[in-house]
Hints:
Helices cover about 40% and strands about 15% of the residues. By secondary structure, the chain is α/β, with parallel strands linked by helices. It has an 8-stranded mixed β-sheet, sandwiched between helices. Strands 1-2 form a two-stranded antiparallel sheet. Strands 9-10 form a two-stranded antiparallel ribbon. Strand 3 (about 75) and strand 4 (about 85-90) form a beta hairpin. The longest helix has 29 residues, at about 5-35. The radius of gyration is 22 Å and the shape is globular. The termini are far apart.
Amino acid sequence: MAFPKEVVRKLVLAAVSAGVTYGLVGQALWLWNHRLSGQRLSTAQEIEAYHADGYSYGLYRYHPRRQVTLRPDHRGLRHGMRGLWMRTDSRGLAFDEALPEDGPAVLVLGDSVAFGSWVPYGDSFPGVLQREFPALRVFSGATESYSLRQIVDLYGEVRGDWSQLIYVWVANDFYEWRFRETPFASDPRGARPQPINLFDFRDLWWRLTDAFAGGPDGLTGDDAMAWNRHRYADHFRLIEALNADGNLTVVLTYVRPQLDAARYEPQRRLAAGLERLGVPVIETLEFYEQYRLDSGDPFVTETDHVHFHAEASGAWSKAVADSLRQAGVLPP
């Protein structure tokens, strides 16, 4: 028996009203959670002024798609800290000044962990890799705060005759950061998710399911929200783009809340997907656990969830280099 048209009409109106109400409430909650601060893309002039006036002493510059990128053909201070120099080539890729003139070229990609925030370049992963494999030409395209989408965009610009591509994966790479803070905030390289777009139904669906599914124990806030299963398909498509030449290796890293909770589901699910794609994975959990037992903690401060201090960075990088050697990814 068919429902009366009036009943159907009321049901449809109720469903539409519920959807619109949910979207509006969701947007209001987002604004509240982000201190009611409207996010917008910083302008080229704001980014140039901010980075030229002290934060990075000109190390970064504006990029029309990625917001910021390392300045090409530049020798500057890392974070403006005395003695922490870094050089870039014409592509904006960092390299050690002892780089050999020829030999196989390796490209390191990632965000602040691969970049080596707050440590000398020689103690960063690319710097240690160059020292461990002096016959190679190691270049770094790692840029602080980059998401996987920004990393793929950069790779599209520098794709070439790389013998090996090494992507240092961090938990928050999974989330698609789109809006960045303005220079009036603490750091315009930092990023926050965009407000709900009621006309982006895929994003709305992800947020709906995120709200109920949550993330695994050991991740909090936006990192936890990012681990909704619906995001994996896009994430793997982006990784496949990095592996277009079949020379990609992914290095897995961990964050403090995961280590505290001993919950590693994101890395396990990621590793399983990469295995299906045929992408080699370098697992570093054993290093984190052992270093923590030996020295107390691998991080810079009690509140830092990701970054190493110089000693731990050098040790972690050496461990990864040894794993790459043992796996046959890089020459012995």
